[in-house]
Amino acid sequence: MYDNPTAGTPPPGPWGSPPPYGYPFPPPPPAAPDQHGRPILPIVSLVVSIIALIGVVGVAGWLVTSESGLFDGGAASTPTGQLIALPKGAALPGPDLAIAVTQVLEEDDSEVTMACPATPRVDQGVVTICHGTIDGDDWAVVVFFEDPGGHFILQPL
User: What is the rounded CA–CA span in Å between residue 34 and residue 37?
Assistant: First the structure.
């Protein structure tokens, strides 16, 4: 039993002896050399990089020039107005405030209908909320009074 070196190995099959461990298939043939002599990978990567750069520059240009307000700081698009002929610190009836808010919001060619509550006094830091529709959608508009003279800023919600 110890004299036979082939003991414990399977007998050869009809196609010869079994392959050694780790090599169930013959190794692949070596790759054929490139017929053109030019490497293709650097050219493809250059073209893809240029296309990506054009896309990034295009998106950045669109964001800067669009009216989305991403880079304008929001100051230019904040609606502001002023009440006419209002004594400093006086009370403001709701319908008068609704007319002023509607006029400011209609400057953007919007169809606006607002209803506002009466404001006991107009002064810096006084806030009131008007409700209504802008272009057919329900909105609430916060009115921030900046001073006793009736200057205000609107923030649609």
Answer: 6
Compute φ and ψ for 151, nearest 5 degrees.
Answer: -70, 135
Token look-up 């107009």 returns 122
Q: What is the reported pTM? A: 0.51
* Residue the block writes with tokens 């461990």: 21
Q: How far apart are CA 23 and CA 26, in angstroms?
A: 7
- The predicted-structure confidence for 58-83, as pLDDT tens digits, reads as follows 998 888 777 655 554 444 467 888 88
DSSP assigned state of 109? T
Structure tokens at 148: 């006793």
CA 57 from chain centre, in angstroms, equals 16
Token pair belonging to 124: 């810096």
